[in-house]
Write a structure and sequence with these properties.
33% of the residues lie in helices and 24% in strands. With 374 residues, the protein is α+β, with helices and mostly antiparallel strands. It starts with a helix and ends in a 9-residue tail after the last helix.
């Protein structure tokens, strides 16, 4: 069972039910998904190594919300991030937008998400500079998630942070000592004050009732790679993988998700959620991000332009006796198609124009007259 098939079969009902709430970015995502791997104007051409068989295949849409696309993009992102890892402990700090501001976020998503990134980054940088444990420049990678495990709208940003800082005046790496990076209550207060001030500057309409206590969670996550894998889970594979859709009975869609019972619980259980089809479509599509918005951002020592500084820090740690863990295999996965005749691997020959698709498009657009003669 595929999400795109459900979307195609119930598109008219979905448009009617949510016409006033569908954004232009959502419509672009819908158009891309419905045309993914269909009769596109360009196709990929493949040739068999063992026989003379050739074949053309429609291209994927490549949209980041499409559950059919970019399965290799997660691996490529992990490989790039793994190259930036330092041989130190890591923390994950999560900034959550309170429930009362989520309506504002839905209507002004681009402004809200940009503000969340800039404010949260400023809080982390300032706390690191003022910290007795750190007292220098840090690096961190932030990933925007807009949903919880049940796929409800729940905007938050996860940051993974190496447990140390670089003092640019002393040219030294300072290791964070202890099990805690920050007292999460203090960043939460500053997070609240700065974000509200930023939203006021942007003239965004805010609710009359805003809670005094906001949530900033700081957890020790050990080495960095497991945290990166967690962050990559929903980056490039859509909000809900097709394999999680378990049934479609009498207009009710059921999907599976993992539920973590309790903050300190290490046990995940599989839960089932069931919704009417149109509501299910909205549950997923409401998480389409504004076009051009970057949901993954690197800051400080983890920016792309800081490669030399990271190498310098690694040398400092090596001199200090730090043991470097071996990197995982970063070989880029290549697309493979078996030949339908002999089942041997086919070779990708390139992308070319699909004449049949252009002809079909022309015939659909060509005007006709009732009394035309042939």
């Amino acid at each position: 069972m595929k999400f795109i098939e459900l979307l195609r079969d119930h598109l008219d009902a979905f448009n009617q039910a949510y016409d006033g709430q569908i954004t232009s970015s959502m419509r672009q995502a819908i158009f891309a998904m419905l045309n993914c791997r269909s009769n596109t104007e360009r196709t990929s051409q493949w040739a068999c190594r063992s026989c003379t068989h050739t074949a053309d295949f429609p291209l994927s849409c490549g949209h980041r919300s499409c559950p059919q696309c970019q399965h290799n993009a997660t691996t490529e992102w992990l490989n790039k991030q793994q190259a930036k890892l330092l041989p130190v402990e890591y923390y994950m700090v999560t900034f959550t937008l309170p429930y009362e501001l989520r309506v504002t976020a839905k209507h002004q998503s681009e402004l809200m998400y940009q503000a969340m990134f800039s404010v949260a980054a400023s809080v982390l940088k300032d706390f690191a500079k003022n910290s007795k444990q750190l007292g220098g420049d840090i690096g961190f990678t932030g990933v925007l998630h807009t949903h919880n495990r049940r796929r409800d709208y729940h905007p938050h940003i996860h940051f993974i942070i190496p447990a140390g800082s670089f003092n640019k005046h002393k040219k030294q790496w300072k290791k964070n000592k202890g099990k805690y990076l920050f007292n999460a209550f203090n960043p939460a207060k500053v997070w609240r004050a700065r974000l509200l001030a930023q939203l006021a500057k942007l003239s965004l309409k805010l609710p009359s009732s805003i809670p005094q206590k906001w949530v900033v969670d700081c957890q020790h996550v050990g080495k960095g790679l497991p945290a990166l894998k967690y962050l990559s889970r929903y980056l490039y594979r859509g909000v809900l993988p097709d394999k999680n859709i378990v049934s479609n009975i009498d207009g009710q869609i059921s999907f599976a998700y993992l539920e973590n019972h309790g903050q300190n619980s290490q046990t995940n259980t599989t839960e089932i959620r069931t919704l009417p089809t149109v509501e299910f479509l909205w549950l997923v599509l409401q998480h389409v991000l504004p076009k051009g918005l970057r949901r993954v951002r690197d800051f400080g020592l983890l920016r792309g332009g800081s490669a030399r500084l990271r190498q310098r820090i690694r040398l400092m740690l090596a001199v200090a006796g730090t043991v470097f863990a071996p990197l995982e295999n970063t070989t880029k996965t290549q697309a493979i198609r078996p030949c339908p005749c002999c089942r041997q691997p086919m070779i990708f020959m390139g992308v070319h124009r699909n004449k049949h698709a252009r002809l079909t498009s022309f015939l659909r657009q060509k005007p006709t007259t009732p009394n035309a003669t042939v």
